[in-house]
């Protein structure tokens, strides 16, 4: 068993992951035999970064190490779930979780392994000082302060004398004040050992030099300094024993919100959050190409609400920081706290009566409304061109929605009729429906959700952006309505809730996968992870990807057959086979029982152990157990292979 698993969550940052792993292999070759690498890839499907990263991790990163795993994770998009996945697939006794753009001084990993060897019973969570780009200045912890839409600010710990008080200096107006190093809520005025009062009246500017002159010293200034307790730390680097990991909140999604929460969670279990001075790290903050992932504020606030409720904390601090300054509307806050788990998305933005909504109500044509709404960054605006494109191919559209973006996209396509079951009854929705009617579209609008509707009239396109996103709800919707749909069923939130539903149970794929297996005429023809995910299924053969020529298919299958024979004709385990076929069933490149990329028969190729998906979508697997590393539950039933074996 490896002594240490070094794991990183990845999202479209091959450059960072490459140099982070290579620096470790270059700087500490002597301990790599005890180190396992795990990369959990949260990138969108077909990411160019992923296509470069997987062969690197499964190839070169394994050389000279205790192993390396590349784990595709296209379930919940964010930071919490992929980091949790690191601990789930790790085999090392201890785990070092890191951002995929972090560097360490030589010898750091060796000392961390030695630390765990010397402390076999520790269940604490560990961090180390963040060293800035000048490679001199550093920060030791996160202080309990709200700033910049975050709970926690970078801070430096200080001490009075050997065995004396430890404290954090904090700015109060223009002066310095001091707090303890647990969660930083208790003011510190003097040293408990020497009774020396901490200096008062020190201005914040230049306080470090003045504290040094007064005899105080920064904690963690030298790598050989003693470890010390801290409130928490940025999670670019953190570590604990694999079996001691407590996990992030299971319903957290999106990016941000875990700092201080996870450290307090350890404290509430009787453990500590500690700084190891030797665990120094440099973090690449600069992003010349911009941040590649979405950063919805609502998701971050929701994470804080979920976490504070778990810790038993009042929500007042969150409300004061986000709602009072207008970063989050009171309506959004009320919607969130009413059901933090179920309300994973904000309420319809246009029901807030804000300036953006007023602009839409002043539009004169559906086309104008469409253009304006495209610029309004919400939960659906980036999908509007695709929705319009699909609606342009049909005459009758039915939607179950909770916002106006979907309706606007469909109206812009000018179908003959739109039936809208939409819980949005705002002025904006009323204006848009009237615009559509004036342009000759027959519109029926009813303020209802799918549970309130027993059947729908025959339609060409059904759009489901329901008030709940889980397998149970989608299963009910597909059973009731799919028989009335002639061509397209479109589902939103398949990235956010594809694998885990907003009720904590099975996600949307838990209902979609068995539906596709039992209804072979339906196939996925489009999927994107962008903006919480959008998946389109169709039963029109014209929407499927074309297969290669017969000659090309024959050549590709012959090549795969030779590789299979050369490898000893090893069969995939039943579990691995089902996992591969599940991925194929949900893939937009499938055409019947064949892959449109290579043309091979899916069930045959998926059953050969050594084979790979031409798009690298198949889950990796444990070489010893042959069990797949999957981030969704494979539905097991008697007809599980029917759609692929026909």
From TrEMBL:
Presence of keyword Magnesium: no
InterPro entries: Glyco_trans_2-like (IPR001173), Nucleotide-diphossugar_trans (IPR029044)
UniProt keyword Ribosomal protein present: no
SUPFAM superfamilies registered for this protein in UniProt: Nucleotide-diphospho-sugar transferases
Keywords carried by this UniProt record: Transferase
GO terms for MF: transferase activity
Ranges of residues in domain Glycosyltransferase 2-like: 33-133
Protein name as it appears in the record: Glycosyl transferase family 2
């Amino acid at each position: 068993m490896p002594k240490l698993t070094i794991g990183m969550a990845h999202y479209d940052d091959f450059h960072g992951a490459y140099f982070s792993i290579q620096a470790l292999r270059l700087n500490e070759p002597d301990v790599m035999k005890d180190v396992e690498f795990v990369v959990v890839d949260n990138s969108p499907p077909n990411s160019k970064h992923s296509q470069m990263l997987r062969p690197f991790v499964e190839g070169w990163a394994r050389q000279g190490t205790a192993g390396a795993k590349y784990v595709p994770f296209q379930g919940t998009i964010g930071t919490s779930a992929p980091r949790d996945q690191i601990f789930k697939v790790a085999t090392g006794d201890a785990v070092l979780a890191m951002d995929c753009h972090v560097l360490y001084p030589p010898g750091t990993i060796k000392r961390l392994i030695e630390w765990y060897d010397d402390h076999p019973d520790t269940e604490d969570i560990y961090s180390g000082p963040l060293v800035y780009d000048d490679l001199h200045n550093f920060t030791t912890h996160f202080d309990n302060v709200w700033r910049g839409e975050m709970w926690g600010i970078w801070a430096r710990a200080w001490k009075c004398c050997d065995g004396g008080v430890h404290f954090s200096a904090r700015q109060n107006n223009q002066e310095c004040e001091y707090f303890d190093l647990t969660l930083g809520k208790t003011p510190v005025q003097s040293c408990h050992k020497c009774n020396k009062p901490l200096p008062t009246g020190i201005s914040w500017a230049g306080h470090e030099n003045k504290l040094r002159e007064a005899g105080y010293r920064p904690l963690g200034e030298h790598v050989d300094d003693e470890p010390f307790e801290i409130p928490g730390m940025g999670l670019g680097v953190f570590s604990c024993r694999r079996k001691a990991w407590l996990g992030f909140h299971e319903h957290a999604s999106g990016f941000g919100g875990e700092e201080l929460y996870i450290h307090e969670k350890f404290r509430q279990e009787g453990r500590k959050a500690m700084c190891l001075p030797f665990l120094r790290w440099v973090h690449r903050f600069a992003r010349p190409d911009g941040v590649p992932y979405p950063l919805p504020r609502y998701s971050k606030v929701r994470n804080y609400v979920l976490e504070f409720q778990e810790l038993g904390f009042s929500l007042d601090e969150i409300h004061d920081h986000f709602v009072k300054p207008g970063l989050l509307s009171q309506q959004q806050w009320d919607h969130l706290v009413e059901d933090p788990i179920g309300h994973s998305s904000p309420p319809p933005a246009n029901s807030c009566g804000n300036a953006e909504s007023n602009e839409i109500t002043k539009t004169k044509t559906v086309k104008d409304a469409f253009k304006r709404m495209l610029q309004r960054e919400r939960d659906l605006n980036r999908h509007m061109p695709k929705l319009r494109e699909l609606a342009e191919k049909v005459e009758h559209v039915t939607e179950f929605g909770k916002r106006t973006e979907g309706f606007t996209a469909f109206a812009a396509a000018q179908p003959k009729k739109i039936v809208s079951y939409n819980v949005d009854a705002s002025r904006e929705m009323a204006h848009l429906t009237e615009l559509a009617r004036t342009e000759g579209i027959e519109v029926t609008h009813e303020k209802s959700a799918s549970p309130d509707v027993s059947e729908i009239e025959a339609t060409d396109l059904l759009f489901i952006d329901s008030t709940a996103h889980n397998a149970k709800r989608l299963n009910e919707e597909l059973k009731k309505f799919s028989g009335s749909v002639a061509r397209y069923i479109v589902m939103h939130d398949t990235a956010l809730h594809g694998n885990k539903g907003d009720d904590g149970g099975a996600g949307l794929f838990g209902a979609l996968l068995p539906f596709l297996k039992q209804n072979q005429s339906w196939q996925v023809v489009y999927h994107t992870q962008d903006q919480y995910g959008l998946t389109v299924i169709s039963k029109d053969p014209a929407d499927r990807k074309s297969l290669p020529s017969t000659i090309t298919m024959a050549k590709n299958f012959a090549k795969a057959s030779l590789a299979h024979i050369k490898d000893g004709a090893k069969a995939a385990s039943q579990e691995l086979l089902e996992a591969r076929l599940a991925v194929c069933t949900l893939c937009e490149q499938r055409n019947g029982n064949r892959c449109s990329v290579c043309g091979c028969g899916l069930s045959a190729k998926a059953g050969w152990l050594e084979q790979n998906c031409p798009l690298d979508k198949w889950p990796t697997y444990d070489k010893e157990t042959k069990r797949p590393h999957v981030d969704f539950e494979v539905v097991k039933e008697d007809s599980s292979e029917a759609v692929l074996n026909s």
